[in-house]
Design brief:
The structure is a homodimer of 348-residue chains. Chain A is an alpha/beta fold. Chain A has ten helices and twelve strands. In chain A, a hairpin with a 5-residue loop joins strand 6 and strand 7. The termini of chain A are far apart. The model of chain A has no long low-confidence stretch (mean pLDDT 91).
Chain lengths: 348, 348
């Protein structure tokens, strides 16, 4: 198996990404191709005494920046590390792709270059919220406006992912809503609730309120990308706030300072739980080949985690399952539409 | 000044609500009318040795339950404590109303019985997120779907509230969005951004990402009620999660247990910050007279806080300010529409 890594994107690129790539090549049974500015890579490796021996290096002239527009990945910056990596993935020169770069560009590039799995209407960014019971948030920002059909696909794709990667037998799918009753929310939520209720091949447990997210309310949480993005960033912000507030409480006077020092390891434990590097990256579910979006702040360890995640993604056959489901879904939706047309009165 | 309290609604009704009413009457310079089942109230007061001397009691036959439909407040349960209290408020038998009951019913009842301020399109539930820099979340659940015009009114009403109650000179108004750039979000956010930019009578600071909420990103945060509700409940859930996780960390072994005990007061400080009883209730902004929604779990202290808040609401003339702004707003919107019609090509 070969994993392609864009080593030029992300806050700690290229050094930490190169380190992560080397560690993955040495410690995991996988071949690694890194994409980026060859000269820069070799220079840094020499300076930091990193051996590139185990890596294949592919040159790319430019880098997509955080402020670049998504479509630059297939237009102005076709020669970027992200674009080159995605084309290699599409052309079979690798089995999975990892990038810590611009999410919008990665999503656009994956959709336009690697393409979606047949029958998948929208690819989603699937982020694990790192609570004691991890929750896969689908979608966490790729699609601001979605339909009940999209939501159904999110439910199935997320379910397949959590069952393959976390070994859950029947992942509990919940819908993020402003109340638990069946008729809560906007038409999107009401219609989705109706679509998913009573399905035998899906463990839909109904609506979930956001206050229950930290307490294991479900395994897959479906939502539109706007609400999902607000949810994701608020959990990050709250975790950061809590840890900084605690730190200041503990160091506010001598008495608490002493006991505070003893507690620091415990607080670090808590903080670690919300640390991106512990949880790999967010897969773009619905893309024909595994693309893992690593966190922008990824260090070497996070990149190695993301490679490990990519390996599991390939090995467990997630995309084959999604492809199978999507074909059935497409046929079902087509049949529904035909049926709906037949019911409609004919106009003369 | 007279504040009316619905003592039959809420998790701790009627005992804690009666206690809160008595404390308010004794400690704040305000007359209190309590509404509820006279027999039940007198029985409990006798048993608990609470003197009702300082209160005016008005009888109501029934109670609106959490599971009741909003409109029952003006239909099946017109004889409920909430309905009776709202009618008294509308008829001038009190200056403000406090209830810890069903939010949907309170909003429906306030809108239909007490009515909105002239020119206000939608009343909003204004909840203070209790961070070191408190943020007023507008709307936190009353209106799932809103227009840019509604959002503009939320911005002004929230601004007036924060300036009057928190003494801020020019409250910073931010829009909750999935990114900070002007073109982020759905059409609602893009249009609202455009409407609010460059206003001299409003301190609009642009889009705010949810991860910045705990860190004083703004003073008033405007959003649709769906996203607002998810945001509000997620901050509550995260605060609860963090405090329970910490408690379990601190008691996980003897060493941390000892230092943990020393820390407990500090943790309680942190927890107190997120405690509803410290922050009174959420005003329904845009209603012709002050209606304060106290938290469902309110105890006596929280009810007294809510009464204090109602007094400040009346004394600072918030509704007079909102009324003035709303008249101007109405005229402006009318002028905009006339102008838009004149620009449109005539059809023959």
């Amino acid at each position: 198996m070969r994993v392609i890594i864009d080593v030029m994107s992300g806050d700690n690129a290229p050094l930490e990404l190169i380190r992560g790539a080397v560690n993955a090549a040495e410690e995991l049974s996988v071949d690694i191709t890194i994409v980026g500015d060859q000269e820069v890579i070799r220079e840094i490796a020499e300076k930091e005494e990193i051996s590139l021996e185990k890596l294949t290096i592919v040159h790319a002239d430019s880098v997509i920046l955080m402020e670049d527009k998504p479509l630059c990945v297939v237009r102005e910056k076709k020669d970027s590390s992200m674009s080159v990596g995605l084309r290699m993935l599409a052309e079979g020169e690798g089995d999975a792709f990892v990038s810590a770069g611009n999410t919008g560009a990665l999503l656009a590039g994956s959709t336009l270059v690697v393409r979606r799995i047949k029958g998948v209407q929208r690819a989603a960014i699937a982020t694990v919220l790192p609570f004691p019971t991890p929750i896969l948030l689908m979608d966490s920002g790729a699609n601001l406006v979605v339909t009940p059909e999209n939501m159904e696909q999110f439910a199935y794709m997320g379910s397949i992912y959590m069952s393959k990667i976390y070994g859950l037998e029947a992942p509990r799918v919940g819908q993020l809503n402003n109340g638990t009753e069946y008729n809560k929310g906007l038409p999107l939520q009401v219609d989705t609730y109706e679509r998913l209720t009573g399905r035998e091949d899906l463990n839909f447990i109904g609506n979930v309120e956001s206050r229950e997210i930290p307490f294991g309310a479900c395994d897959v949480l479906i939502t539109d990308g706007f609400t999902g993005n607000i949810t994701l960033k608020l959990t990050e912000g709250m975790a950061k706030f809590m840890s900084s507030t605690l730190k200041s409480l503990f160091t506010s006077n001598i008495v608490t300072k002493v006991s505070g020092l003893a507690m620091m390891n415990k607080i670090k434990e808590l903080k670690k739980q919300f640390d991106a590097s512990e949880h790999g990256g967010a897969p773009l579910l619905g893309i024909a080949k595994p693309v893992i979006k690593a966190h922008g702040s990824s260090d070497a360890k996070a990149i190695k985690s993301a490679v490990q995640q990519a390996i599991s993604f390939v090995n467990t056959g997630i995309n084959q399952e999604i492809a199978k489901f999507s074909l059935e879904f497409e046929a079902k939706v087509k049949a529904e539409k035909t049926a709906a047309q037949e019911v409609q009165p004919q106009e003369n």
